[in-house]
Amino acid sequence: MDIAYIPSPSRGVLHLGPIPLRAYAFCIILGVVAAVWLGSKRWVARGGAKHTVGDIAVWAVPFGLVGGRLYHVITDHQLYFGEGKNPWNAFKIWEGGLGIWGAVALGAVGAWIGCRRRGVPLPAYADAIAPGIVLAQAMGRWGNYFNQELYGRATTLPWGLEIHKTLPDGEVVNGVFHPTFLYESIWDVAVALLVIWADRRWKLGHGRAFALYVAAYTVGRFWTEWLRIDEAHVYFGLRLNDWTSIVVFIGAVAYLVIVGKKRPGREDPASIDPAAHAEAEAAGEKAAGEKAAGDRAADEKAVAGKALAGKAAAAKAKGEGPSETVAGDKPSRIVDGDGRAEADPQPAAAASAAAEKTGKDAEYPI
Fold first, then answer.
1. Directed axis angle between helix 100-118 and helix 240-262, to 10°?
2. pTM (predicted TM-score)
3. Paired strand residues for 228
4. What is the residue-level pLDDT of the chain in tens, covering all 366 positions?
5. How far apart, in whole angstroms, are the C-alpha atoms of residue 305 and residue 203?
6. To which H or E segment does residue 100 belong?
């Protein structure tokens, strides 16, 4: 009976016309985006400006990529230098080969440069970005899956990874192995959640959240590194990366303890990012301008209302200006140029006719 193992991808490159889209690079890019997004949310929650993390990442990411590749090439130099090897392959980063230790170390140098330019303390920035970094590592490990690399020992477990590939030296690999990429990816997600939880619980600051990430990551890395069977330097029965994990773990724990005693709590939110003050002032000026504009509009509306009321009152007063007349009488007519009233000729004519009629009636009585 066949067991349904995890299948390997048929290919790790998708060609869009002449442009190759490599899954390994795509996973790294997704990880960088996730790290910047999560880091920005955490940085703003700590009192920083929303664009600071992205601006510093412009420095940190390139440095990190170079550092990761340098660490890999230095520690696995036998893959690129020596008889029958092509040194130019050391530049083919898309084929895999990024050492997280070098990426974090040189990436920290780039972050330090960016922080200096922005006036931001590096430990505070590191605390904000720590869960994002390990989340990026979780996504980047899937690039190893598409490249069919860094798998572990042979296994019959149902979640074993099927590998069908030809190595550079011509050796063909077919079998089922521990999916160490998956183990480490799951562990990295757990570390990200742990750092977020601990940071909320104990208000970690001054680089302690970053130290917790480093310490927790090295524990999982030690275990997955012990399972791997790819070529590596071995010292006293342990692979080089296992020794690196041990040393880095001790340093991270020591930092947590020492800094926790000397500088407990977090940094003052008002002191971590000058750009946040500029954004707050700009927002305040905008709000004040909008309020002033609203007040001016209200004042103009009130003035217009008063003007309309005055015109209405004047019109009303003008309509009541002529002298009141007795019912049945007609008002006098105003002569242009002066205010004197001119007698209406119709009443005089009527009176004359009445007088004439009266005389005739007297002469010819009915």
1. 40
2. 0.76
3. 152
4. 455 689 988 778 877 777 888 899 999 999 999 999 999 999 999 999 999 999 999 999 999 999 999 999 999 888 888 888 889 989 888 878 899 999 999 999 999 999 999 999 999 999 999 999 999 999 999 999 999 988 999 999 999 999 988 876 778 889 999 999 999 999 999 999 999 999 999 999 999 999 999 999 999 999 999 999 988 899 999 999 999 999 999 999 999 999 999 999 999 999 999 998 766 666 666 666 677 677 777 777 777 777 777 777 777 777 654 444 444 444 444 444 444 444 455 554 444 444 444 444 444 333
5. 57
6. helix 100-118
